[in-house]
Amino acid sequence: HQSQLERAKTSIGNYKQVVLKTLRKKDSLLKKYETILYGDALPEKGKIPRSSVIDVLKAEVKDIGDENRVLNRERDFLKKEIEELESNMLVLEEKEINDTKEFKPNSETRVAVTTEFSNGLESFLVTYSDLITLILVIFVLLYSVSKVDGGKFTEVFSSFQEKKFQLQHQNVRLDTKEFEMLSRVRELVKDNVDPESLVRSDVRTILIRLKSSDLFAPGSAHLKEDAEELI
Question: Is the CB of residue 53 less than 8 Å from the CB of residue 35?
Answer without folding.
Answer: no
